[in-house]
Design goal:
With about 170 residues, this protein is mostly beta strands. The protein is built from 1 helix and 22 strands. It is globular. It starts with a strand and ends with a strand.
Length: about 170
């Protein structure tokens, strides 16, 4: 645990956080493998949390970025899993970027926008699948109603991006 200025963590392989990462400024985590966090990640007032992994990312603790939160899984068909804990900003944007997602806990951006999009711009998007556990099709970001219901925002919800070329379907 550290309550200091900006925090940057870089790992060429896997990284697991089981404690608290807390900074008075922004927090940046870049992992060349899998990122797992059962501890809290908390940036200071007005600061953001940005976490990037090449392989899967699993969040089981709170992630708080008053100035915004970006969780980005860059590997093809790799999954961002939020099993527990909340992802929170203070009226700032939250962006979740991964080809596969499993979202089961609260995501709250206040008046900030929330964006869910695949990392691969050619992936299709399918909304309304039966349950979060059915997110298993290759090259397709699938989101269940229950996953979308975890999101609380008055700033708007965007699914996909202007440069995405994959089809969007509603189940």
């Amino acid at each position: 645990s550290a309550a200091i200025g900006a925090i940057g963590i870089t790992a060429s392989g896997n990284f697991t956080n089981t404690g608290a990462i807390s900074g008075n400024s922004g927090i940046t985590v870049n992992v060349g493998g899998t990122l797992g966090s059962s501890g809290t990640i908390s940036a200071g007032a007005g600061s953001a949390v940005v976490a990037t992994s090449v392989d899967a990312m699993t969040i089981n603790g709170n992630v708080t970025g008053p100035g915004g939160v970006t969780l980005n899984v860059t590997g093809a068909d790799k999954i961002l899993t939020q099993n527990a804990g909340t992802i929170t900003s203070t009226n700032s944007a939250i962006a979740l970027i991964a080809d596969e997602m499993m979202l089961t806990s609260a995501i709250n951006s206040g008046s900030g926008a929330v964006t869910l999009k695949p990392n691969n711009t050619t992936d299709a998007i399918r909304l309304g699948v039966a349950a979060a556990s059915t997110n298993n099709s290759a090259a397709m970001l699938e989101l269940a109603d229950g996953e979308l219901n975890t999101i609380s925002t008055t700033g708007g919800l965007t699914i996909g991006a202007a440069n995405d070329t994959g089809a969007i379907t509603v189940a």
